[in-house]
Amino acid sequence: MDLFRSRLASSDLCLQSSWQADVDASASLYNDVITGILDEILPTRLVVRRPRPSDPRFETDCRAAFRAASRRAADVVGGPAAASAFAAAETARVRWFAQRRAYRELRHHKSVLFWSIKLTTATGPRDMWSTVDRLLRRGGRACDRVSADELSIFSANKVKQIQSTTSSAPLPTFRPCCS
Fold first, then answer.
1. CB distance 18 to 12 below 8 Å
2. Residues 81, 116: one domain?
3. Residues 64 and 98 in one domain
4. Is residue 174 part of a domain?
5. Average pLDDT, stretch 77-87?
6. Which of 37, 51, 102, 121 is found 20 to 30 A from 84 (Cα to Cα)?
7. Cα Rg, the chain, nearest whole Å
8. How far apart are the first and last CA of the chain?
9. Could you report the per-residue pLDDT of 49-77, keeping only the tens digit for each?
10. CB atoms within 10 A of CB 50
11. Distance separating alpha carbons of residues 176 and 179, to the nearest angstrom
């Protein structure tokens, strides 16, 4: 925080000679100076986004049910009938809930059907466990930038650090729980 304050105090924002009479120019100066200071102090970092694989159960009829539920929601929120009368709004809300319930039931049915077929058509234990792993979204490497060697070194160092910090601690004492 002190670094930010010192950079701000030495910036053009604190020099009265650099102040603009135009509001837009002053706002632009403020934005440029604050952004520049923050970019120097807090540099941006690269974030890797790994998209999840598409769900094979989500087919055209699921999309159609989702769109229908969205239309019902729009009727409840901002439709002209909903704004004109309470009864129309209540009817739209009931229809929306029914459509949303139908959409959820369809997705659940598709999910159960898809995975039951996958599990029953598995040719062996390896294929079945592969299906279970896909069902639970397991199996992919968590991070491509960390190798097994780096993970091993990190773990060994962590164990050494814990051992060194607890080496001077007294030994644990155990008392019988029942006498």
1. yes
2. yes
3. yes
4. no
5. 56
6. 102
7. 31
8. 59
9. 776 655 655 667 777 777 777 777 766 66
10. 9
11. 7
